[in-house]
Structures are given as C-alpha cells and as structure tokens.
Amino acid sequence: MGTEFRSQLGRVGIFGGTFDPIHNGHLEVASAALRTHCLGEIIFVPARRQPHKDARPKASAEHRLAMIGLAIGGTPAFSVSDCELKRPGKSFTIDTVRELGQQLGQATEIFFIVGSDSVSDLPAWRDVRELSNLCTLVVAARPGWPLDSLDALPHHLPAERVAAVKRAAIRSTSSAVSATEVRRRVGSGRSIAGLVPDAVANYIARNKLYRVT
After folding, report:
1. CA-CA distance, 47 to 19, in Å (whole number)?
2. Domain residues for 110?
3. Which CATH number goes with the domain that contains 89?
4. Who has the most CB within 10 Å: 10, 67, 99, 126?
5. Is 138 among the domain residues?
6. Residue 120 lies in a domain
7. Does residue 77 lie within any of the structural domains?
C-alpha cells in the first residue's frame, strides 16, 4: 500500500503507533484531533517497532496495515502511510516527520498525535526539540493518563514549546479500550464487538490473529 496524500497544503495530522490492532479508541482520538485542529487530513503511520517498547508487535506489518485500511476506508479525511514499515530497525518519530514533511511540502502545517500515556517517554525521544519545532505535538488524554502529565515537560522543552503543546492538547470521548484488551479478548475467545470496527473484527477472525496457540 503506497502513500497517496490528498493535498500538499493546509493542516495535516500524523497519528503514529503500533496499531496492533487499530481499535475504536484510535478512531475517536483521530476524529477529535480532526475537529479540534481543523485538520484537512490525518495520516495513520503504523510502526515497524516502537523504540520505547521491548515487545514486538503480535501481528505482522502486513496484517496491521490491512486492518488500518479497513478501519479508515469510509473516512475520506483518513489515510495511511507505510513509511515506517519500509524503514529497517526501530521507528523514530523524528524520521517520520522529516520524511512526510518533505512529501507534504513546506506549506503544510504538521500535527503529530500522541497519547497522554506516552508523555513520560517524550524526553527520551530522538531529537525531541527539533521534533517540537517541526510539528505541533497534539497530546490526547487517555483514561488513567490525565493531561496534567504535561507539567513535567518544561524540564525538557523550551517554555514556548510547552505552552504550544498544552494549547494543542485534546480530550476525546475515547473509552478505555486498548489494543492489549482486544488481543486478550480474542485470545480467550471473547467477543470484541464494539471495540474495533466490524471489518477489523472479521479480518482478525478470518486470519486467526491473536489466538493463543
């Protein structure tokens, strides 16, 4: 699946993550970012392997990419890029923002969407100061990870960038659904209805993903 963006102008969100699998919580966060920041497009970018997670994804890159395609297929403002899957090794956000920024053009304002559970890792991100200059970091509140975790950022970023991050933060109506819970339910033979789009649930069943062997 190639990268075909709708426009090289305007405001574009980049939503990175393992998406193992993509679930309704991801889609709710993306929709909230789309509305809050008047974005023209959100690009979902599945990681080959996230730098701050020791465990490798349970599903293959091909399966995760396919599930994202099924989940976002009915939303014209959503697209997917396989740029991180094509790069060897761990997937660093700064490399993705640089690469997609070049493709989108200098006239495009980039917003990188990250869950509030990842804020504590931000100081360890590669070239985080450059990242904060290349894009607006949009922190989405997740259950159990309140936005007051942003108060730790002034020790690692300039004050004006921290202020920008706080202004851009969003609170979605996302439930407590997580990819871990989806995988756990599949592994124990329970239903995942309502946690993922129907097309994704059917794909998981058809390809026998996340089953305990």
Report:
1. 8
2. 10-176
3. 3.40.50.620
4. 67
5. yes
6. yes
7. yes
Q: pLDDT tens, 178-209?
A: 899 999 999 999 999 999 999 999 999 999 99
Assess contact for 83 and 3: CB atoms under 8 A: yes
Spatial distance between the Cα atoms of 54 and 13, rounded to a whole number of angstroms: 26
Domain count, the chain: 1
Tell me the DSSP string of the chain: -----S-SSEEEEEEEE--TT--HHHHHHHHHHHHHTT-SEEEEEE-SS-TT--SPPSS-HHHHHHHHHHHHTT-TTEEE--HHHHSSS---HHHHHHHHHHHH-TTEEEEEEEEGGGGGGGGGSTTHHHHHHHSEEEEEEBTTB-GGGGGGGGGTS-HHHHHHHHHH-EE----S--HHHHHHHHHTT---BTTB-HHHHHHHHHTTTT---
Q: How many C-beta atoms lie closer than 10 Å to residue 154's C-beta?
A: 12
Q: Which residues are within 8 A (CB) of 186 and not within 5 positions of it... i.e. 6 or more apart?
A: 192, 204, 209, 210, 211
Please check whether residue 184 lies inside any domain of the structure: no
Q: Give phi and psi for 181, each to the nearest 5.
A: -65, -40
